[in-house]
Amino acid sequence: MTLAGAAVRRNKAASGKSQDVSGHRSALLLAWYDRHRRRLPWRALPGETSDPYRVWLSEIMLQQTTVKAVGPYFEKFTARWPTVAALGASSLDDVLRMWAGLGYYSRARNLHACAAAVLRDHAGVFPDTEEGLRALPGIGPYTAAAIAAIAFDRRTMPVDGNIERVVSRLFAVEDALPKAKPLIQDLAATLLGPSRAGDSAQALMDLGATICTPKKPACGLCPLNDNCAARERGDQETFPRKAPKKTGALRRGAAFVVTRGDELLVRTRPEKGLLGGMLEVPTSDWLAYQEDNAARAQAPELKVSRWHRKAGVVTHVFTHFPLELVVYTASVATRTRAPAGMRWAPIATLKDEALPNVMRKVIAHGLGDLPG
Ligand code: SF4
What we know:
- The chain is of the alpha+beta class.
- The chain has two domains: 3-238, Orthogonal Bundle (Endonuclease III, domain 1), CATH 1.10.340; 251-367, Nucleoside Triphosphate Pyrophosphohydrolase (Alpha-Beta Complex).
- The protein has helices at residues 3-14, 19-36, 52-62, 67-80, 84-88, 92-99, 106-121, 130-134, 141-152, 161-170, 181-189, 197-210, 229-233, 292-296, 357-367; strands spanning 251-260, 263-268, 279-280, 287-288, 308-309, 314-317, 322-331, 343-346.
- Strands 1, 2, 3, 4, 5, 6, 7 and 8 form an eight-stranded mixed sheet that branches.
- β1 (251-260) and β2 (263-268) form a beta hairpin.
- α6 packs across α7, α9 packs across α12 (197-210) and α10 crosses α12.
């Protein structure tokens, strides 16, 4: 037996629960879902069939992003590209532009690659198994399980952050994340009923988002409150247990906001790596403990009468490190040519470009505002 399997057994034994309890829980959960399900733009209404395209698009957008932030982007994408085939036939530039502001841009590139693969290799129809879905670009184990369960009603349980929290509380899982993931996955699967796998998963997601919240869970309203180990102990908020976070060291650098009339000097970042393929103003390297002068010395080679150092700094937190940028501004003569690898872009249309949030902050800091 695997360690996780043994732990599942231990948990069940320790709480004296049987298969009947699991069945009872899944029935309670589905009955609660039928009354309290959230209305979400990508979710089929009761009695409707889920559209795999909408399920997939929402799952990719929701990775590391909130439901509230995703809503308008989802509407924009589906209005412009109503089917996966339409998205697959679009250009990567258009997708990146539309994605700008949602962050984690490798998702946008994978989104485009995935749509193109579905169009090219599957005649515009998503595969209906976890295995087939996982073979597509940007679809990992969680997303494959989510699409398989929600769009195709495959009997599988995708475990997102909300489900992790609910399950770790229901079973009082003492192991810390991320080590506890396989155990939580196995325990979550015990909440699947004989049918309606997608609804079971969405019910747990909704329960985590609306009732079993990180702080002050509303246990009195929870359909599973009779069988919740953490509630019995009264320490619900301490779950899931988490290993201490290792944050990267602060990196520092300089950004150069150079105008030529109503244009701004920009360049495109390399395809691979952080913010790959996105637009930026020229910057120095981003290094830990970099001195201001060393960063300032990496300004683009231009005839500039004087660099102005803007007061304050722009801060941004990436997943692995926080960043602090000093912003220098300058304006140059009308005929000035852009240095190699850079170009002049009209300031008025910048908001439509694939500009990551950190660059929006830098430009707004340098120009006083980002037009539009
Ligand atoms: S009883 Fe409370 S802690 Fe337990 S699952 Fe329900 S909301 Fe979460």
